[in-house]
Amino acid sequence: MRFFALAWAVLLPYYTLQQYLRPLPDLLSLVAEFLPTYSGILVVLTAEPLLREAASRGERIDGILQWINVVAGESLYLLILPPAIPFIPVGLGNQLMAVRVLDLLLAAVGFVFIGVVLRTLASGLWSRTLWWGLVSVAAVYFGYQIRWADDLRRSGSPVMRDEFAIAFALCKVLYSAMFLALVMSVPTCRNRDGGLSDQLLEIGRDCAMRLKEPFRSGDHADLLYDEKGLPK
Length: 232
Fold this sequence. Notes:
The chain has 232 residues and is mainly alpha-helical. The protein is built from 12 helices and no strands. Helix 8 packs antiparallel against helix 9.
């Protein structure tokens, strides 16, 4: 949830600066486009702790889940891609398009990863309903991502039109609410098995049953100290 929240927080400056992008020099406009890419990488990373929770519940992490685990765990290396794009001598328009396509791919990969892992964790009618709602909102969001990239191709302007800003904001609010509700509806290992104190007490009871006399019923002071009260 921290990765997911940080992914949206990274985008806040990008949306806030939209009205100032037009008068900025071309290179700064391109640098501003890095923020959605970083956000997409964080969304991909979100799948990794979700997979750890699935593993702790006894789910088998193999096949597609194993592949997701590897890609999500190594996705931080993708942070080097956006700063590398300005060094490709293809012109500003093509550089902007390359960054926008990268945003599109990362958004798709991140949403697919989160959807697959949460489908493994979700159980019960309420969780499954939330999951379908999450997938539907993600599909709408991805559709607007495609239209946004196509708008850049046709207009060549890095400034996001109000139509896309409003659509992205609504999708993010809905997706975040459903994501939070779905994650909170999944019983974690601690919720199922009790807190840490309960687990420690259970370990203590198990150990006590294995002790033999006189240690089982004796006082711990008799074991640790002599008749003068000094450590043995």
